[in-house]
Write a structure and sequence with these properties.
heterodimer; A: 117 residues; mainly beta; four-stranded antiparallel beta sheet; 0% helix; globular; B: 115 residues; five-stranded mixed beta sheet; 9 strands; 46% strand
Amino acid sequence: DTAVSQTPKYLVTQMGNDKSIKCEQNLGHDTMYWYKQDSKKFLKIMFSYNNKELIINETVPNRFSPKSPDKAHLNLHINSLELGDSAVYFCASSQGDGTGGEADTQYFGPGTRLTVL
Amino acid sequence: DAKTTQPNSMESNEEEPVHLPCNHSTISGTDYIHWYRQLPSQGPEYVIHGLTSNVNNRMASLAIAEDRKSSTLILHRATLRDAAVYYCILRPLWAGGTSYGKLTFGQGTILTVHP
């Protein structure tokens, strides 16, 4: 059973387009995240949601808009795609009680490789 | 956030133990030490975490120095499947507000396992 799933796995699009990446977790977790891994392999958090409320927004351009319709889903919509948005995007979830211990273990999805031409 | 320092890369032979070091000299008394790894073309996965005492689980062991300024992830018998980037991350005991749940990844250590 897949714990954290993302669709699509690959996304190739033209500059200026709008696209969405979907994420679902079946772990019953309260907190979900989006991370970006650039071409140099640095992984950086973009957003986190706890119980559908935005908690972290790491100075991401407002072309990126996360949407959490319910606790099990956190989608990422990107407007006016730019070349620099090409990266692998990872969704993650955790039970998220904020204590830094076991309950904050994050489970990552397989990633979505976005290529902007 | 307190920083961690790891070697860029390490190599091992299959079925030999691997000791992956991490320095965190500015660690605070309430920071947990977490290790994640990222296999090729996959998302990161949790390996182990600890606070003060050494920890063991089915994947690895974590040895934490007495002063907590360094730690070592131990893979007891490396397999080819253990080839990955290993990240040592500090997580505060309470990460509320805008740090809630935040994992700050460094460059990690690329582990190569030879058959």
